[in-house]
Hints:
- The protein is α/β, with parallel strands linked by helices.
- The chain contains 17 helices and 17 strands.
- The strands form five sheets. The protein has a five-stranded parallel sheet, with helices on both faces. Strands 6-13-7-8-9 form a five-stranded parallel sheet.
Amino acid sequence: MAKGHQASGIVAGRLSPQALSENFDDLHAPYAPHEAAVAADRCYFCHDAPCMTACPTAIDIPLFIRQIQAGHPEGAARTILEQNILGGMCARVCPTETLCEEACVRQTAEGKPVEIGRLQRHATDTLMAAGGHPFERAAPTGKRVAVLGAGPAGLACAHRLAMLGHDVVIHEARPKAGGLNEFGIAAYKSTDDFAAREVDWLLQIGGITIEHGKALGRDLSIDALMEGFDAVFLSIGLGGVNALRADGEDRDGVRDAVDFIAELRQASDLGDLPVGRNVVVIGGGMTAVDAAVQAKLLGAESVTIAYRRSRDDMGASRFEQDLAASKGVRLMFNVQPVAVTGNGAASGITLAYTSEQDGQLTPTGETVDLVADQVFKAIGQTLIAPDGIALDGRKIKVDGTGRTSRAGVWAGGDCATGGEDLTVTAVAEGRDAAMDIHGVLSA
């Protein structure tokens, strides 16, 4: 049993199977065809569409919505997937409320945007349900590319390279592909094993092999890969977890939020997953919200998110914050952990109030004690740096096309410098790196 389950208040089966099923149902129900048609009719089909500019993968949003309006969701899906091969998952997890939908002219004019994310899901789900794959491979080039990591960036890179005729081998440390789509997001955002089904669908392009149980540094080296492949793409994510830096963080009941979410996503029966009675989540990003909401949905009586800065500084969007609040999660701002208390197992946590001056946090001298038999750390992850590759701060240094400091090696996704750590951004980086790799291999 994973560390933290031994604390006295952490037990499984707090809720009935029916309650768990209802709690973890689809966050946003899919559109019926007539609903999609009505939603598509709200689009102005702007010529200089701000929604398209706001999309990290530059999907032609007005075009795909017009295709839905015209009764051609499969054509709309192809428009989406040409730019974003993981468009189905991005429709579910992308923070559209701060990207395309925030930029929507309807949002500006009326405060109610076209529901672009749900329309995108309608199109991609329709195409996937019809079976088959919308793209074909080009003639074989005889070139081989190694991709390290089967997360969004690695999958997007592999698919584009395979479509262009290259052979790709993905080396993945975990027993399943998908990366954070499979292991790192809330279960109610990706129901019915969608992440795995999307990977299987993507692999229909052909030319892609996945080898599991292969980790860089443990089983593989860049030097060895460069001898056997014509190019290497690193999409290794962030494997380390930041420390809480509070007394008592080694107590039973304290664990990483990412591990909790991964365990929940892979659980065959949520009734077997232990959760505390009083849960505190430290952090302010999407992982913090996902962990907090799911703890509440599992039956925790009290769940609190404690974030060291203000509400406006939270990495999680206001939609996600409001979602947490709607599920009964308490949000505390300008507090940071000082100590986890208890006799062996966690029973409480002491938080210090903070104030911000010129971007620097300082304690006010006040503290507050909360009852907590389970504490989740959601304070960011760190890169396990590969040898011989230059870093920029805590990530791999890359240029605009994903090239690293080593010739023949590209990188993208959370492990590399670039945009926000989002699935949609990772897809764009993997796709763009693939196009640059193709250009180099074709020269």
